[in-house]
Amino acid sequence: MLTLEFASLSDRGKVRLNNEDACGHIVPATPAELAERGAVFVVADGMGGHRGGEIASRIAVRTILAFYAADGEQNRSQALAFAFREANKTIIEESVADSALFGMGTTCTALALHDGQAYFAHVGDSRGYMLRAGVIQQITNDHSIVGEMVRSGIITDEDARHHPKRNVITRSLGAQEDTAADVPTSPLAIQRGDVFMLCSDGLTTYLSDQDIATILSENEPDEACRKMVAMANAAGGRDNITVQVVVVRET
To answer: Domain tally for the chain?
Structure first.
């Protein structure tokens, strides 16, 4: 029966005045409910003036959790895709209704665990990772200029972390009415001991994949979150930092 251990941490960082990141989760309290309904985790990184980023990221997390949980559709990929569409719609509606929030938007990455499968969905450059048997894998592909350059072989992952356009994203919730999440058609089969991580780019700007793998391998979820946020802050902390870690103890 599915058993999870998880933790999350969101930090303002050392420079920003506000925290425009948001995160949330729904994990049923009993093993029976968890087996039946599964769990869902969400991280969002907002943008926009006059607190628009804070509002957009919180709308995204709240809406995706609510619509995913309420959707009885057995296809979890479709449920995530629908929840992201509703979040995009809600952000645009709020932006239009309040001129001070016009143009607000957010990245968003979600992970759903259900019936022995892991489902990812994302928009923007907040990332989803899986650590299995000590090997780290970035599951999501950044919707960003440098992400496209990495995938094209123009620059390396290390180059991307220091590139002047590393923060320029090519897709976000709230930007366009037809914005859709990337949702892989084939989920990942969960194995005992798998570690999943969602994070905003305030973390991955400073930590390499190997840094992440080492910390996840050597620490429980709550301590892993604290150590990664501390490492990002020690390296500069120029952005908000949010991370969620989920360990599969039993499948």
So the answer is: 1
CA distance 196 to 136: 10
Type of residue found at 174: G
* Cα–Cα distances in angstroms (integers) from residue 64 to residues 44, 152, 153, 161, in the given order: 11, 31, 33, 29
Q: Are 168 and 127 in contact (CB under 8 A)?
A: no
The Cα 59–Cα 65 span in angstroms is: 10
Query: Please, where are the H alpha helices in 30-129?
Result: 31-37, 52-70, 76-97
Q: Which domain holds residue 200?
A: 3-250
The string of pLDDT tens digits covering residues 58-113 is 999 999 999 999 987 678 999 999 999 999 999 999 999 999 999 999 999 999 99
Global pTM reads 0.94
CATH number for the domain spanning 72: value is 3.60.40.10
